[in-house]
Amino acid sequence: MNPNNKVIIKNADEIEYMRESGKLLAKVFAMLDEFVKEGVSSMQINDVVEDYIVNTLNARPASKGQYDYQYCLNASINEEVCHGMPDKDRYLKSSDIINIDITLEKNGFIADSSKMYVMKEAGRAAKKLVKDTYDAMWCGINVVKPGATLGDIGYAVANSARGEGYTVVREYCGHGIGREMHEAPNVVHYGKRGDGMKLQSGMTFTIEPMINQGKAKIKTKKDGWTVVTKDKKLSAQWEHTILVTPTGFEVLTLREEERKARS
Fold first, then answer.
1. Are 189 and 43 in contact (CB under 8 A)?
2. Which residues of 223-239 are buried (b: 16+ CB within 10 A; e: fewer)?
């Protein structure tokens, strides 16, 4: 985060760079759509993503080396809330759900996004959690516009999730993003309408709710990274990088299937 904890408003040139990074990151997920399946290990996912970002997109996996992290993504399975570390010995099972969280830097600017993948034999409740978490993220995105507040985003996310009987993880949040992976402001996924900082055109930040099937309490495993639900119930997360435009918002990491669904 920038040392003054000040929100960095992006100019037109910087926004174009952010758009390019976001579009490239969307391509990574399009590539993964055919790759992530039962029997694949989370390390294999990591390795194919790194190769694609570096050698096909001529970009950089921004997570690698950040905070001494040695991988290019997080792979969080089932009860893992976030920061799941790739493991060569952990293979996806037919009933798993997995969140793949990837950052990509191109021309000095970073995009950040995550997507849930659902294996074919995942249970009905797991599939519903994944869908409802996606819907909660979009409830937050849809209120973004100049003059809206961070509290408006948090309220919209939490109201949607709680309406379906879930809990919202409070320890982790969205964040400003640009030249640095984590800039101001923090974007929490709970709150009151009208509270907090007002949004301005040119702001870029992530919205990335982590929604639990059971209680909101979490813990970090002994590896120092992987965060899990304390009650071992499922957790889901989706994430997009958002630009505040003069009239509303633009999802910089929007994937093609989403573009078609929303057109």
1. no
2. eeebbbbeeebbbbbbb
- Give CA–CA dist 159/26, Å, rounded: 28
Separation of alpha carbons 205 and 244, rounded Å: 9
Overall pTM surpassing 0.85 (yes/no): yes
- How long a stretch of residues is the chain? 263
Q: Residue 137: phi, psi to the nearest 5?
A: -60, -45
From the CB of residue 23, how many other CB atoms can be counted at a distance below 10 Å?
A: 17
Give the list of residues 6+ apart from residue 165 with CB closer than 8 angstroms, or none: none
> Radius of gyration (Cα) for the chain, nearest Å?
17
- SS3 string of the chain? CCCCCCCCCCCHHHHHHHHHHHHHHHHHHHHHCCCCCCCCEHHHHHHHHHHHHHHHCCCEECCCCHHHCCCCEEEEECCEEECCCCCCCCECCCCCEEEEEEEEEECCEEEEEEEEEECCCCCHHHHHHHHHHHHHHHHHHCCCCCCCEHHHHHHHHHHHHHHCCCEECCCCCEEECCCCCCEEEEECCCCCCCCCCECCCCCEEEECCEEECCCCCEEECCCCCCEEECCCCCEEECEEEEEECCCCEEECCCCHHHHHHHC
Question: In the chain, what percentage of residues exceed pLDDT 90?
Answer: 95
* pLDDT tens digits along 187-217: 999 999 999 999 999 999 999 999 999 999 9
Query: How many Å apart are CA 14 and CA 180, to the nearest integer?
Result: 13
pLDDT-derived band at 261, boundaries 50, 70, 90: confident
